[in-house]
Amino acid sequence: MGAFYDTIPNDTLMDWIRQQKLFFVSSSPLSSDAHVNCSPKGHDALFTLVDDKSAYYVDLTGSGNETISCLYEEGNGRITIMFVAFEGPPRIVRLFGKGKVFERGSPEFENYLPPGDPRRYPGTRAIIWIDIHKVGTSCGYSVPFFEYKKERNTLLNFMDNQEKKEGGMKPYWNLKNLSSVDGLPGPKVAEPDAPEPGEKFTLEGSGGGNNASTKTGKMSEGGDVVQDLMARSAMLLFGLFFAGWLLGLRITFDEGVAREARQRVWGTLAI
């Protein structure tokens, strides 16, 4: 059943962790009324065990940045990584630790993810380092079986498109990653006055996972999703305004017709 350790207890468990295709990351601000975040992470080789008490994972850009914001919060840094067995014997493993953020372009980032490393996926934002101080294992008897089929490459294709635009990832970070849902500051690369990262990570320059070079879905074909949504919103507002204008004309016309009819009736009665 459940057990706790100061470090990952054996090589067998370390090998099992390295084989997992999915892991979950949890973090939370220090405030008691703030939101607790839990994010699923996938893709080949995102998570790396350094030894029995330290690890890191490649942080890909998303529409939010809860983990980075919580780790940057003064006095915080708490992070939990969870792995679950979806095949084979049941098992749940949690790695409790303190996290550090090594943003793209920093010396630490370049050290752990040097040029030419196939894990430099499009949209890579940071390296999240974890100093593990407790490891928990539990049974996982109620976790259902799931069959792994393949990686989902929609995010890589979308970020590959962003990387190739003027300004690279900078405009997207500035739009989506400035702060967390609780208002904590996001990654420094998202700040308006932060310099633009020099190198662009693209599918052509990375390993890209399984069949990552295959473009799929409208997200990778239709340009900037944000601009598309703004355009559609503008069209909707214009449509509502035009419909209201037509309705106003109809009401004015109907009132005019009614007024003329009343005048004719009163004129007839007066005769």
From TrEMBL:
Keywords on record: Membrane, Transmembrane, Transmembrane helix
Keyword DNA damage: no
Protein origin, superkingdom: Eukaryota
Region (Disordered): 184-220
Segments passing through the bilayer: 234-253
Record flagged with keyword Iron-sulfur: no
Protein name, as recorded: BZ3500_MvSof-1268-A1-R1_Chr2-2g04742 protein
